[in-house]
């Protein structure tokens, strides 16, 4: 105690005498994270890392956190849950980081959540969207993005408002899309839509003709597909081939990224995609984030970058309000916090489960992504209904 | 509804038949189950993609490039690697081609990245009454029929083709008759690879491609030649069409999730009940 008092006094003296800020005088505040920089999740994982870096730059430009310079210690978990577990152990026990941030993906977050709990570290997890992670009585984990169940809320809402009656729901048969369709079905029923078909297909499926023929036979107003990327592309192509003409067709993951249009060209027109974030959204701090990001990395951010950036800011806000790094104090603040960042709204329930962040729906119009839902964030009018393939 | 599904099944089946004929030919002649067959198909697909991307070459014309190119690659593979295990126990050739397959896929990932690519050439369909015929699939089917027929005629009518069949029936007798078995092996591996390449070129117009797209075709081809009878070349045609139909019909009457399961259960049944294939093996 005496030593740290002396240090403090010394730092104060240095500051007074030489005008050096405390940020430089004190030991940096190390925040640890493992991210997928190689392997299956390399792309989103790298974006997330870049988001963290922008956050650190911004905090440091404003005097750091608790007066200390923020420094990220980040490792590559190679998209592997086991590696990530080892890395979080190492970060906390060997590197002695004082805080941690979440890794990429639900699966890896789930696998390391036990470790951050064990060492009593708050872990804001910006890229974990699976509800179950946050429903196991864990105390120190916080969610930032919208849960899987709400990915297609916009599609259902827009359709119901325009008097559509029937919906067909299909999904890849894996954890995340399954959660999405459970939520979609519930939302659809609540809005009085009749679910005329619901079917899953295996991961890696490339031929959707029989499935689409079945859909065509029940002729739904809406086709909602909980997809990743490959399947979203294949379904769209084969809908054209089999002349399947719903009034609305929406996909989840994959529909919002530029490659979707590069691959499908004009066939992507009118397709709806859901996303956690879009750079055109009028959120506070958005412009600053975009310009800082582009200046540093020379390319456009994805929502993973924005979520990483926002997640780190949210953690910092909790620390600022708690005026401490103590996990219980920060936790109490993060549970109370209501904030709107460049990524959108943040509020959590008692489990740290996200309740405020809104998914947005985009529609491809003339080769561009136009935000069409929710109304207060829309950047353009939706093109409804989708004309039959023969008239495009 | 049933009609549409049968159409889709037959269209897919003709393509399976062509690709499987390649695998069947190699197996018939050398008793080597070429696990890298699917990855060779992937190379064909990428060749078509790059020719389309760089030179704007019509993907169907690119068959004239991909088939000869992969013919050479196939011959080289045979000469450099497969030749050494032809007489070894079947497990060695399986391991070898498995290794080659992994190498090809990983090299492709390095060279092409894992990004999805597509040849956006023919989309949409011919509509006839209540039926829709996907343009790219109809044309793929037509090419598959032409190429498969050409391969059959080659095997039936030409001296070289007869030599190939002779080697596949009995190597020793063929050798005694003065057939250069080593050359025939190379030739068969080349033709087999060229057939895979043709499949790749045609598939590239139908679906988005990526380095791991091929493996599933190895399994499908294996299934087809077991159904049709290993070493029985017309059997491959029957097996291919059958597989296409089974996949589509089981998706229609059951769910898409189980269509692969149904196909492989059938594989096991055929192996148990009629191990020579639906048509008798070896032609």
Structure notes:
The complex is a heterodimer of chains A (392) and B (283). By secondary structure, chain A is of the alpha/beta class. Chain A contains 13 helices and 14 strands. Chain A folds into 2 domains: 16-146 and 281-346, 3-Layer(aba) Sandwich (Rossmann fold); 151-275 and 360-391, Rossmann fold, CATH 3.40.50. Chain A is 42% helix and 18% strand. Chain A has a 7-stranded mixed β-sheet with strand order 7-6-8-9-10-13-14, with helices on both faces. In chain A, strand 3, helix 5 and strand 4 form a beta-alpha-beta unit. With 283 residues, chain B is mainly alpha-helical. Chain B is built from 11 helices and 2 strands. In chain B, strands 1-2 form a two-stranded antiparallel ribbon. In chain B, helix 1 packs antiparallel against helix 8 and helix 5 runs antiparallel to helix 8 (181-206). Chain B is globular and about 60 Å long. The chains are: A alpha/beta (392), B mainly alpha (283).
Could you provide a short overview of the structure?
Chain A has 392 residues and is α/β, with parallel strands linked by helices. Chain A has helices at 2-18, 22-25, 42-61, 81-93, 106-118, 153-161, 175-190, 209-218, 230-241, 258-264, 286-297, 303-322, 327-336; strands at residues 29-35, 70-76, 99-101, 123-125, 141-143, 166-172, 194-201, 222-226, 248-251, 272-275, 339-341, 344-346, 360-365, 368-373.
N- and C-termini, Cα separation of chain A: 74 Å
Strand order of the largest sheet of chain B: 1-2
Strand order of the largest sheet of chain A: 7-6-8-9-10-13-14
Question: Would you tell me the overall average pLDDT of chain A?
Answer: 90
Q: What structural category do the secondary elements of chain A indicate?
A: alpha/beta
Q: Which segments of chain B are poorly predicted (pLDDT under 50) over 5 or more consecutive residues?
A: none
**How many angstroms does the end-to-end distance of chain B come to?**
37 Å
Topology as H/E string of chain A? Answer: HHEHEHEHEEHEHEHEHEHEHHHEEEE
């Amino acid at each position: 105690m005496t030593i740290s008092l002396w240090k403090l006094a010394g730092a104060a003296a240095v500051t007074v005498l030489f005008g050096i800020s405390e940020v430089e005088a004190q030991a940096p505040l190390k925040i640890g994270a493992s991210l997928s920089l190689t392997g299956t999740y390399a792309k989103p994982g790298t974006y997330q890392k870049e988001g963290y870096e922008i956050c650190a730059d911004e905090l440091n430009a404003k005097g750091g956190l608790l007066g200390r310079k923020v420094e990220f210690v980040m490792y590559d978990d190679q998209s592997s849950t086991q590696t990530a577990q080892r890395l979080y152990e190492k970060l906390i026990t060997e590197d002695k980081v004082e805080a941690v941030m979440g890794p990429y993906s639900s699966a890896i977050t789930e696998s390391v959540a036990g470790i951050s709990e064990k060492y009593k570290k708050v872990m804001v997890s910006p890229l974990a969207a699976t509800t179950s992670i946050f429903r196991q009585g864990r105390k120190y984990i916080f969610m930032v993005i919208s849960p899987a169940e709400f990915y297609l809320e916009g599609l259902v809402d827009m359709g119901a408002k325009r008097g559509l009656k029937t919906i067909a729901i299909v999904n890849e048969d894996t954890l995340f899309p399954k959660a999405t369709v459970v939520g979609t079905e519930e939302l659809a029923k609540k809005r009085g839509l009749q679910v005329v078909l619901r079917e899953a297909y295996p991961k890696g499926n490339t031929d959707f003709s029989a499935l689409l023929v079945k859909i065509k036979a029940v002729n739904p107003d809406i086709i909602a597909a909980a997809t990743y990327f490959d399947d979203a592309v294949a379904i769209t192509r084969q809908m054209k081939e089999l002349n399947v003409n719903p009034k609305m067709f929406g996909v989840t993951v994959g529909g919002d990224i530029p490659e979707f249009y590069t691959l499908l060209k004009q066939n992507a027109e009118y397709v709806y995609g859901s996303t956690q974030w879009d750079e055109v959204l009028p959120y506070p701090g958005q412009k600053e984030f975009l310009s800082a990001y582009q200046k540093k990395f020379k390319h456009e951010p994805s929502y993973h970058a924005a979520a990483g950036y926002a997640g780190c800011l949210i953690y910092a806000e909790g620390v600022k309000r708690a005026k401490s790094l103590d996990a219980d104090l920060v936790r109490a603040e993060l549970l109370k916090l209501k904030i709107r960042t460049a990524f959108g709204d943040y509020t959590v329930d008692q489990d740290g489960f996200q309740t405020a962040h809104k998914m947005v729906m985009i529609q491809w119009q003339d080769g561009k992504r136009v935000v069409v839902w929710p109304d207060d964030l829309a950047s353009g009018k939706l093109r409804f209904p989708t004309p039959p393939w023969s008239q495009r | 509804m049933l009609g549409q599904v049968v159409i889709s099944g037959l269209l897919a089946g003709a393509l399976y038949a062509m690709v499987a004929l390649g695998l069947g030919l190699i197996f018939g002649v050398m008793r080597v189950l070429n696990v890298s067959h699917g990855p060779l198909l992937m190379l064909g697909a990428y060749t078509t993609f790059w020719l389309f991307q760089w030179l704007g070459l019509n993907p169907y014309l690119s068959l004239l490039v991909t088939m000869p190119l992969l013919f050479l690659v196939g011959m080289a593979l045979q000469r450099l690697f497969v030749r050494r295990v032809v007489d070894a126990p079947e497990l060695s050739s399986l391991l070898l081609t498995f290794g080659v397959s992994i190498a090809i896929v990983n090299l492709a990932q390095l060279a092409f990245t894992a990004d999805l690519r597509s040849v956006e050439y023919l989309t949409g369909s011919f509509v006839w009454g209540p039926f829709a015929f996907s343009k790219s699939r109809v044309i793929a089917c037509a090419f598959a029929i032409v190429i498969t027929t050409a391969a059959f005629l080659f095997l039936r009518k030409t001296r070289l083709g007869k030599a190939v069949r002779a080697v596949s029936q009995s190597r020793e007798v063929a050798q005694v008759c003065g057939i250069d078995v080593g050359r025939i092996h190379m030739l068969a591996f080349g033709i087999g690879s060229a057939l895979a390449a043709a499949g790749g070129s045609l598939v590239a117009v139908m679906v988005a491609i990526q380095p791991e797209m091929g493996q599933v075709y190895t399994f499908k081809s294996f299934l087809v030649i077991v159904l049709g009878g290993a070493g029985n070349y017309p059997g491959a045609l029957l097996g291919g069409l059958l597989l296409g139909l089974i996949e589509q019909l089981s998706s229609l009457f059951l769910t898409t999730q189980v269509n692969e399961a149904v196909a492989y259960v059938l594989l096991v049944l055929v192996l148990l009940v009629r191990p020579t294939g639906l048509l008798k093996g070896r032609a």
